[in-house]
Amino acid sequence: MDFIRNFPFFSIVLSLFSGPLSSILGGKWAKRVNLAVIVLCGILSGAVLWYVCRTGEAFVYTMGHFPAPWGNEIRAGILEALLAVFFCAIMLLCMLGGAREREAEIETSKQNLYYIMVNLLLCSLLALIYTNDLFTAYVFVEINTISACGLIMIKQNGRTIEAATRYMIMSLLGSGLLLLGLCFLYDLTGHLLMSNIQESVHALVASGQYQRPLLMAICLMCVGLAIKSALFPFHTWLPDAYGYSTVSSAAILSSLVSKGYIFLLVKIFYRVIGFDVFSGSKVIHVLFAFGIAGMIMGSVDAIRESDIRRMIAYSSVAQIGYIYMGFGLGTMEGVIASIYHVICHGATKSLLFVAASGITDASGGSRYFKDLNGAGHRNRLAGVAFTAGSLSMVGVPMFAGFISKLFFSQAAVGHDIKMLPTLIALAISTILNAVYFMKTVIRIYSPLKIPVMDEKAAETGSQETMTGKNAGLPEGYREITMRQQPVKAAAMILFILLNIMLGLNSEPLIGLIERGLKMFS
Amino acid sequence: MDFGNLIRNYGEAVAMILFGIGFSNLLLQKNLIKKIIGLNIMDTATYLFLALKGYIDGRKAPVVVDGIQSVEAYVNPIPSGLVLTGIVVSVSVTALMLSLTIRLYRRYHTLDLDEISTLLKKEEK
After folding, report:
1. CB of B117 within 8 Å of any CB in chain A?
2. Where are the alpha helices (DSSP H) in A363-506?
3. Which of A26, A281, A346, B72 is deepest in the core (most CB within 10 A)?
4. Do A226 and A287 meet the contact criterion of CB atoms below 8 Å apart?
């Protein structure tokens, strides 16, 4: 059984080497390799999760058997394994759900490049989850950024290249700050392994030395990772990057890439600085304030948007705000709620992106609300999926979003000063969410106004296209049944089931998160 | 105010000023090439900071010559290793940024990011 201790390392290396392998394969084979690697990594991480749940304690895997202060380490506990399984599952569903659009939008000769990027992204996410070394984490943050940039710009048009440039600029600012923070911390403590740094930081705090540089290091790392995960004032790159890239990229970016950085931040809180030091510093108040601002401003921006994909992107800003607000509460309950929200938002937002692509597909490819009337009837499953995702984001019971809102409010109630602002912001944000999501749901189920054509055009005009099922619909509009797109339909159904499962049966998951967080310290 | 520490650690102070220059250039410049120059100044400042922190006065680079193996004789080699890794990362992101810039320039014949945004909006209409 102890062989399972190798699995985190295997899953990282497997996804790393499948990248170069895909570069010599054709598009079809690269896709098969990619899906196989994602499934395999998921299974390996599942085995790790089973192992750590059984033994009840985290294990450390020393790379190359160099002992602690010198060697590089991988560490796996319940929380790490849980998130690895979850990331693999979501990535698989995103890749399946967006396969059709991806193959249409990317040139055939460049298909395999996309899979290289996805493999590298998976590798860097797994490494960010499992690593116990801060500098390794920095290197994989950069790999994550580069492959995410590739995912944005693989669909070649002016919009995506501009979005990729803006994304790169903001990300590089973030990683510059993160690197500087790491250097500060290294100079203060003399270590790069998380557990050693934590010991030294505790000794520093106890002795009262170097308080200001330590605070600076915490600030720099928080701001760096906040920029990279698009916390409110730094979110300007986000709508373009999520709005114009191909569907599976947008889903992966919103539900996985930003979450990888957030999980690294959680690791820094617990494993590097120590949670009591972190919650004692004033940084958490700043994170709390910006989280609340993001919850409201992201939703306000989403209401003003007239493009369905950009609206979902702005909603991500609001949800990232929730997560940072949970950190800002500075309690264990707040962090548990935030991590649950990471999972819930990952499952919901990717569902929304995939469903939105089905809706726009049935409306002649237009993404503007004015053209979306009746799309829920033309593509029934996408309509149902979008409704389910919207209900979850708004926080209706039975869906995942409700549970995370419940936990956020429970976490806030225990807090004397921050209770009122949190509850008010949650209420306002829920109303704003309901405004823009329900507006869209009503729109896709309201009847389509068919423009009156003059008789001549109706007679001579495209008679072939006007026959059959699509008769009576404007040009480009069509009905899409589940049978036409079985893979996408399966992905959407699985996403909906995942959401309902998270909403109805959250106890075991919360228990796992709690045990995982306790393993951290 | 006591500026003694600032003067004694003038190298680190210079590194931080350079970091600030690079950071604000990357953030505020409109011209993409100037942004990339800012990125490089920012990264180099971090490496300068790291290298200074690893240096110990009067000691040599950790390469064993004449059989001296005492720890006291050498500077800390880890920051140099970190700098090397950092340089590799910075080279690759610079290459990526430059290739993006070339793409944008070929399409829109300008290096100004704001102008590109306005051109894009016009394109859509």
Report:
1. yes
2. 375-378, 380-394, 400-413, 419-445, 455-460, 486-504
3. A346
4. yes
Question: Nearest 5°: phi and psi at A394?
Answer: -70, -30
Distance between CA A154 and CA B104 in Å, rounded? 14
Q: What is the pLDDT of residues A402-451, one digit of tens each?
A: 999 999 999 998 788 888 889 999 999 999 999 999 988 998 888 877 65
Q: Which residues contact A324 (CB under 8 A, 6 or more apart)?
A: A226, A231, A287, A288, A290, A291, A294, A338
In Å, how far is A129's CA from the nearest CA of chain B?
20
Interface mutation target, options B34, B53, B118, chain A, most CBs of A under 10 Å: B53
- Does position A261 have pLDDT exceeding 70, yes or no? yes
Cβ distance A176 to B86 less than 8 Å, yes or no, reads no
Phi and psi for A60 in degrees, rounded to 5? -115, 135
Q: Which residue range(s) make up the domain with A399?
A: 282-521
> Do A469 and A335 touch, CB atoms closer than 8 A?
no
The range of the structural domain enclosing residue B37 comes to: 4-124
Query: Which stretches of chain A sit within 8 Å of chain B by CB?
Result: 135, 138-139, 142, 145-146, 149, 153, 158-159, 161-162, 164-166, 168-169, 172-173, 176-177, 179-180, 183, 186-187, 192
Task: Convert the pLDDT of each residue in A311-344 to its tens digit.
Answer: 999 999 999 999 999 999 888 889 999 999 999 9
CATH number of the domain encompassing residue B80? 1.10.287.3510
Please check the confidence at residue A463 and state whether its pLDDT lies above 80: no
Q: How many CB atoms lie within 10 A of CB A244?
A: 26
Secondary structure of A283-348 as H, E, C letters: HHHHHHHHHHHHHHHHHHHHHHCCEHHHHHHHHHHHHHHHHHHHHHCCCHHHHHHHHHHHHHHHHH
Domain count within chain A: 1
In angstroms, the separation between the Cα of residue A462 and the nearest Cα of chain B is 27
Please state whether the predicted TM-score (pTM) of the whole model is above 0.90.
yes
The ipTM (two decimal places) reads 0.94
**Cα-based angle A131, A132, A138 (whole degrees, multiple of 5):** 65
Q: How many residues does chain B have?
A: 125
Residue A434 lies in a domain: yes
